[in-house]
Amino acid sequence: MRRPTLEAVAARAGVSRATASRVVNGQTTVAPDIRDAVLRAIDELGYVPNSAARSLVTQRTDSIALVISEPGTRVFSDDPWFAMAIRSASVELEEANKQVVLMLASNAKSHARVERYIAGGHVDGVMLISMHGADPLPSALSRLRVPVVSYGRPAVPVNIPYVDNDNLGGAEAGVRHLVEQGRRRIATIAGPQDMIAGQDRLAGYRKVLRDSDLRSIVAVGDFTRESGAIAMRQLLGDDPSLDAVFVANDLMAVGALQSLRLAGRRVPDDVAVVGFDDIEAAKYTEPPLTTLRHPVIEQAAAMVRLLLSLFEGGPAEPVILPTELVIRESA
Amino acid sequence: MRRPTLEAVAARAGVSRATASRVVNGQTTVAPDIRDAVLRAIDELGYVPNSAARSLVTQRTDSIALVISEPGTRVFSDDPWFAMAIRSASVELEEANKQVVLMLASNAKSHARVERYIAGGHVDGVMLISMHGADPLPSALSRLRVPVVSYGRPAVPVNIPYVDNDNLGGAEAGVRHLVEQGRRRIATIAGPQDMIAGQDRLAGYRKVLRDSDLRSIVAVGDFTRESGAIAMRQLLGDDPSLDAVFVANDLMAVGALQSLRLAGRRVPDDVAVVGFDDIEAAKYTEPPLTTLRHPVIEQAAAMVRLLLSLFEGGPAEPVILPTELVIRESA
DNA sequence: ATGGGGTGAGAGAGCGCTCTCTCAAGAGAT
DNA sequence: ATCTCTTGAGAGAGCGCTCTCTCACCCCAT
């Protein structure tokens, strides 16, 4: 026994298929009593429109691809913001009655699949989460005739509207806080330099140090705890007298705290630490982490709004959200 | 200019639409030269099959709903396993050429939407992640005529095959480890008792204590760090002489460690701590956490295989994966 | 030369829906 | 009483694809 069709609903309600369709799609040109008869038939039969048939004729799919273009290992590994961004975007999209198709583009093969899928018109729009400079996907997708928005400024200049947080300003605020605390040997653990967030946060650090006539001491990590721990050991070797470190994300800061502890440095007495992201774990480090909060949830929501407005032919202006310094005990 | 259709491909290759369709779908009853001609036409036109039209006739969609039935705040908040499970499932499904439709069912309204969507035949199957006893979704979905598999044993007995890890055995191993270390006042911070994982891990704790003739001391949390910290304070108040605590997940263990630190207890000297899950953060606590590892990635992959085998009419036996005690410094 | 079997390709009917076009019926204007 | 206009509902043409049926053709056995 197959699912009831619009035809069946129409038959039961004693009207034509066209009228039943009008009721389903909420058109107003249907007399109230007929409308009720159709609604009753729908209810009795448990009718649900067949979306394949519908999108075949409307050329819309009411679904949005959420493309995460990152090596699988890093994504999700346990950086919470990916998950938060996905959740927030999902909630907002469901609010707008769009389905979310999740696509992971972790390598060349899956890149090709994603491109083919998008080109195939399976979705009405694309939300792209890609933080890597070398990623070919943003430019590839921007060539397709599909609305695309990006979470985070695309590394290569490409005509895709995006939503990002103020990495530069946030980093400046964090480092300035260290300067104001009287710290003079301020190092940084930078993020990967093929990522915009990595670049911008390092640039913010450099700018403040230059303005304060302080020497910069840089180690580079890849945003994982492990890399933060390694980078911190390296910095301590390079300059044992450092008295502060600005870490480009909280996960690396957690690793850095561990290295500092193992090296016998007290935080913040000997070395002050500022992180970036304000993940939940930042409250539970020893000591709790001073860090820069940026609104992941709002950023994802703003991205959804941007995409929806694109559908309406609205403006495609990038959105930059502010960051906020959260002072705890580490600095 | 719209997308090329099969008709266009057929015309360019000088064959009928049916033959072009045969080539696209890899049927073997096409002569090699004609096949090549069609493939060339496809390539030249950049043809991509219209999935709506295809699934209209095949009655398949090649997509799978990944339904996460949890209050939004808890999901993803920063428990990494949700994200890991999603990633792993996605990778496996993409391998099998299925699309992943992500659906969040956080409240009654979204439950209804999910049910409607599934009932609407938009997907070929459902992977359900639901850890709550009171959740009506498992039974609701099991009534629909759609293959459903569950991540984690459904709380209400319902005819859905599932994949789970050995919560009971894992908890037993963890508590037994504490007993073997000579601990005698062993408390537990249990998980929420409306969740199977919470129940089973508590049951494992109880069983070992009973077998060892020790008294149980129980506080209940909700699997968040915060609740772990609160529960630990409470346990210390209830019985200041406790010398070990088995915590039902690592996130709560992190909170418990913080409370122990604030209370001036040394870990593991004064109080030994065992967690559960072996999240990445467990390596970075002070001291690093002894915990029970369970294979989230494999579990998700097994769930996908289970669903795919269901499509083939294969067996629907639940799968239980083992856990492993990882000994670090906290116990 | 005839018939049977196998192979490769085309014709055409739908899958379930939307939407334009058409038309009937009744209200109001002349 | 006739005509125009509005409103409500039906007819029917597709959307792009798959798949069954049908048939043309060639090879080999008789």
From TrEMBL, chains A, B:
Keyword Transcription: yes or no?
yes
SUPFAM superfamilies linked: lambda repressor-like DNA-binding domains, Periplasmic binding protein-like I
Q: Which InterPro entries match?
A: HTH_LacI, LacI/GalR-like_sensor, Lambda_DNA-bd_dom_sf, Peripla_BP_I
Q: Which domain of life is it from?
A: Bacteria
> Does the keyword section mention Transcription regulation?
yes
Q: Where is the HTH lacI-type domain?
A: 4-58
Q: Which UniProt keywords apply?
A: DNA-binding, Transcription, Transcription regulation
Q: What Gene3D superfamilies does this protein map onto? A: 3.40.50.2300, lambda repressor-like DNA-binding domains
Can you name this protein?
A: LacI family transcriptional regulator
- Which organism encodes this protein? Nonomuraea turkmeniaca
